[in-house]
C-alpha cells in the first residue's frame, strides 16, 4: 500500500490549488481516503474524507464551502480542490488510508 501526495506549493490568499493523492497497491473504490493537515506548532487535523463505495464525504467546518474532495477511479487518485485559500490553510497536507499515511505536501498561503 502506497499513497503519494503531491500538488502543494505557494499560493496567494484567495487563490486555488489542487492536491492529488495517488494510491497504489489497492483500489480506492474499496477504502475511505482522508486528507489531514499539520500546521507549524499545531496538531494534525482532519480536513476532508471520501468513501467512493458509500458516496459519503466529510469536511471540517474550517474548509466547508471552499474545499472539494473527489475521486478519479481511472487514475486511482483522490483530489482535494482548494479554493479561496486563506493563510490559515498553510500546512503540510497528508492523505491517509487507515493506518497508512502518504508523505506530506506543503501548502503555503501568502497574505
Number of helical elements:
0
- How much of the polypeptide forms β-strand, as a percent range? over 45%
Q: Give helix and strand order, one letter per element, not per position.
A: EEEEEEEEEEE
* Number of extended strands: 11
What number is the mean pLDDT?
97
Q: How far apart, in Å, are the first and last alpha carbons? A: 37 Å
Helix/sheet category: mainly beta
Low-confidence stretches: none
Q: Please summarize the sheet with the most strands.
A: 7 strands, mixed
- Our Rg estimate from Cα atoms comes to 13 Å
User: Quick one: overall form?
Assistant: globular
Helical residue percent band: under 10%
What does this structure look like?
The chain is mainly β. Helices cover 0% and strands 55% of the residues. It has no helices and eleven strands. It has strands at 2-6, 9-12, 17-24, 33-38, 45-51, 56-59, 67-72, 77-82, 91-97, 100-101, 105-110. Strands 2, 4, 5, 6, 9, 10 and 11 form a seven-stranded mixed β-sheet that branches. Strands 1-3-8-7 form a four-stranded antiparallel β-sheet, with no helix packed on it. A hairpin with a 6-residue loop joins β4 (33-38) and β5. The relative contact order is 0.33. The model has no long low-confidence stretch (mean pLDDT 97).
